[in-house]
Amino acid sequence: VQHGVLPIALVYLHDTEEMLLCYPSMGVFVNKKGNRSRNHDIQWGRTPITFEYSAPFLFISHVNCIQMIEVSSEMCTDTYIQPPRYAEMIANASCIGVSPAGA
């Protein structure tokens, strides 16, 4: 993480009991003590506006699109060979409503 750059969001990953510190260009996995829990970071394609996690997907809204990343326990580790499965940059997405439970 670059010196002097503060996270813009903190996302709790309830299924892995980790947190994702979200910076303007990347996400860093940390444990409950704030220590890095994975060796590598997630890189965003664009500057993010908001983040939402609904296991196993991380949704990142950008100015004109939504990025969806499938988060797994192997992601961003040294043993993880495959790139993350995601539908990147869903352009011109619109919110048509939310469920009563907020999920």
What would your notes on this structure say?
With 103 residues, this protein is mainly beta. It is 0% helix and 38% strand. The protein is built from no helices and 8 strands. Strand 2 and strand 3 (26-30) form a beta hairpin. The chain is globular. The model has no long low-confidence stretch (mean pLDDT 81).
In a nutshell, what does this entry contain?
With 103 residues, the chain is an all-beta fold. It contains no helices and eight strands.
Estimated structural class = mainly beta
Largest sheet: 4 strands, antiparallel
Mean pLDDT: 81
Helix content: under 10%
Low-confidence stretches: none
Helices and strands, in N-to-C order? EEEEEEEE
Determine the strand fraction and express it as a percent band: 35-45%
Strand order of the largest sheet: 1-2-3-4
Shape: globular
Give me the count of strands.
Answer: 8
Number of helices: 0
Radius of gyration: 14 Å
Distance between the termini: 31 Å
What features would you highlight for this structure?
103 residues, mainly beta, four-stranded antiparallel beta sheet, 8 strands, globular
Q: What's the arrangement of secondary structure elements?
A:
Layout: E1 9-13, E2 18-22, E3 26-30, E4 42-43, E5 50-54, E6 57-61, E7 65-70, E8 86-91
Antiparallel strand pairs: 1-2, 2-3, 3-4, 5-6, 6-7, 7-8
